[in-house]
Automatic annotation (TrEMBL):
Residues 11-214 form the Thioredoxin domain. GO terms for molecular function: oxidoreductase activity. Keywords: Disulfide bond, Membrane, Oxidoreductase, Redox-active center, Signal, Transmembrane, Transmembrane helix. The keyword Phosphoprotein does not apply. The keyword Signal applies. Pfam families: Thioredoxin_4 (PF13462). This is Disulfide bond formation protein DsbA.
């Protein structure tokens, strides 16, 4: 009997740990942080219909390898089948764990948002992804991306020079850590009743199953 319990206890611990990764606990502290409004607040503009019943909240880093792979391989299909059809909306929040260059790229995306081109700039960053901590994010490269999408460079650079969005990005990053985000990409997929966490660049099938559950 003792051997039986020794075998069962680790299994149960593993099951509960897996459940924690999928469903956030609804303690008073967590529920106050994880309201729909709080999760969306301060992030990117919404991609898709703001009234879509399911939200994907992506936590990403512009230098992150697996974030790049998600944008290259999976997001396009989700966008075509679910976002453009009004079933799902997407919000991006910055989690710049690869250092100052990632922070600068995130700031640049919000400077582009000042000119109404957040998603165009966001996509340009991932189109030109050059690896993690390889030095591809520079003021010159960020200006090149801005030129590609026809931003006003003087306004864009003035925004970066004065660090207009540096505190905003840092606050988003801290909020992510506070609610348990510890890797990129990470996704919180939710409706008004349930939040499901997806960690890493999972295949499309994982997202489809999650949509079904919600």
């Amino acid at each position: 009997m003792t051997k039986f319990y020794l075998l069962v206890i680790p299994i149960l611990i593993g099951i509960f740990a897996g459940m924690f990764l999928a469903f956030y606990p609804d303690s008073e502290h967590e529920s106050s942080l994880l309201t729909t409004a709080k999760l969306i607040e301060g992030g990117s503009p919404i991609m898709g219909n703001p009234n879509a019943p399911i939200t994907i909240l992506e936590w990403g880093d512009y230098q992150c390898t697996f974030c790049y792979k998600f944008h290259q391989n999976t997001l396009g299909q989700i966008e075509e089948d679910f976002i453009q059809t009004g079933k799902v909306k997407l919000v991006f929040k910055d989690f710049p764990l690869n250092g100052p260059d990632s922070l600068l790229a995130s700031e640049a995306s919000f400077c582009a948002h000042d000119q109404g081109k957040y998603w165009q700039y966001h996509d340009e960053l991932y189109k030109n992804w050059g690896g993690e901590r390889t030095g591809w994010v520079t003021r010159e490269s960020l200006n090149n991306f801005a030129t590609t999408i026809d931003l006003n460079l003087a306004e864009f650079n003035e925004c970066l020079d004065r660090g207009k969005y540096q505190t905003k990005v840092k606050n988003i990053h801290e909020f992510g850590k506070e609610i348990g985000i510890d890797a990129t990409p990470s996704f919180l997929v939710f409706n008004d009743e349930k939040i499901i966490k997806i960690r890493g660049n999972q295949p499309l099938e994982v997202f489809l199953k999650t949509f079904d559950e919600l």
